[in-house]
Each structure stands twice: as structure tokens, then as C-alpha cells.
């Protein structure tokens, strides 16, 4: 028996007779319910959620940005005239940026998770990890109920970054420290 088979056998034994947890999203929920749960769960992770319409997106985005240099990936869905388009900026150049703005691939309501596949509008992983503030644009039609609903929208051949709130870690005494492994602040612009 391989190690994989042994692990799977242990999981089957441990979960025998255990029913699956009820989804936080009742069957037949409307898309608005799913988007509302996504906003609630993202906020639970200490992220800021700003609801807006396509018409108010640019104004909300401008208001959400801190003072300083902003980096954006090539292909971002919103034009930011003063932003620096990442063309392979060095870690030091990225560290000098106050914020990054990206689009998302999918938002998962049940877990409050945003997934980036680093395609157009999302850029390379480094730009989402180095600046202190990450502003992520998620459109209502990108929000799905749960992880199984997200999987068909994702390409397993692409690098995927799953984001659930701002970067945080705790030390041995459980003191929470934010911004150690990525942005200290996550702002989600939820469009729709």
C-alpha cells in the first residue's frame, strides 16, 4: 500500500458515519444572497469591503487608495492614469509602492476567499504580496457559492493565489501580527 493509499484509508475510517456539514448557502439561494454572504465573510477576515456599481467603481477605487505610488498589472480592467504598470519591477521597487490594484478570477462566498490566477489584470504573484495595501476588484458575476463551484472556473495549469483576508500570523502566545507574509490591508471592491 502506498503512503497516499494509507492516508486516504485513514481519512475514510475517521470520517465514516460523519455527515457533510450544512452549507451556509441554502439551496435555491439567489445570486444576491451569494454575493451578500461573500461580502460578509470577506469582512469577517478583517478586510474592507466596498460595494459599488460599475459606474461608481473608479471613484470608489480612487477613494480606497492610500497616498503614494500604486502598481497595477498589465490588463487591469480599470485605467489608473498615475499608476505604474508592472513590467518586472524589482522587490525594492515594489516595496516602494504603497498599494497594488488587481482584478480577481473568482470570489468564493462560503469561505470569503478571492482567487487570482495571475492572468491579465492580476499580474505576477510578487505584486500582490509586497505592497502594504492590496485593492482587489471582484465583480458580482465572479462570486460563486463554494469551492466546488469555483473549481471549473480555475485552470490548474496556472499559478493560483487564494486570499482570505489580509496577511496575518500569530506567534506562540497567539499575538496576531498583520502584514508579515503579504499586504497588511486588503480592500475588496465588490462591483454589482
UniProtKB/TrEMBL annotation:
Domain LUD: 93-191
Database matches in PANTHER family: LACTATE UTILIZATION PROTEIN C
UniProt protein name: LUD domain-containing protein
Organism: Nocardioides islandensis
